[in-house]
Amino acid sequence: MTRKSYFEDFLVGATLSLGEHTFSQDEMIAFAEKFDPQPVHIDPDAALKSDYGGLIASGLYTCSVMMGMLTRQVLLDSSAMGSTGIDEIRWLKPVRPGDTMTVSLVIEGARLSHTRFDRGVIVMRWDGANQHGEQVVYVRAKLMFGRRPPPAMDSLLV
User: Fold this and answer.
1) Cα–Cα distances in Å, from 82 out to 146, 150, 158?
2) Which of 30, 58, 61, 139 is 20 to 30 A from 92, comparing alpha carbons?
């Protein structure tokens, strides 16, 4: 049985590997056709003539991939209570078909809620690096997590 993660489990300065994802051209185009249909994302011929010199993944797609990794590795087995928002996204280098992005999670800050004592806010940064070790994207966000419940009174009695 896996252990549920609570606010107290996220230590400032800790880093967690979320895994890796290899971007396929078909996957990139399918996402972009539906959500970000710019020629540089959906048309390989037009993309060749662009400043990028070829097809690149939509930045929104790279963020969606990272969110999926965060959800599967952390959020599904946690006391996550939603997000107060994304504070910053930076796309630093293009992601191309065949690139493999490795994603890590860095805990940058933690504070208890000022109004709701059952939760706290974690400041996280998700870093994505390509197969050459170059950082291609990062996202900084604040997520709320429930605090660990106090032990039951009967477990305190000896």
Assistant:
1) 10, 22, 38
2) 30
Could you say which architecture CATH assigns to the domain 7-24+57-151? Answer: Roll (3.10)
- What are the boundaries of each domain within the chain? 7-24+57-151
Helix (H) / strand (E) containing 154:
helix 153-156
120 close to 110: Cβ distance less than 8 angstroms: yes
Q: Reduced to 3 states, what is the DSSP secondary structure of residue 124?
A: strand
Q: Is the dihedral of CA 131, 127, 4, 64 positive or negative?
A: negative
pTM: 0.90
Q: Which two tokens stand for residue 104?
A: 């890590």
Share of the chain above pLDDT 90, in %: 91
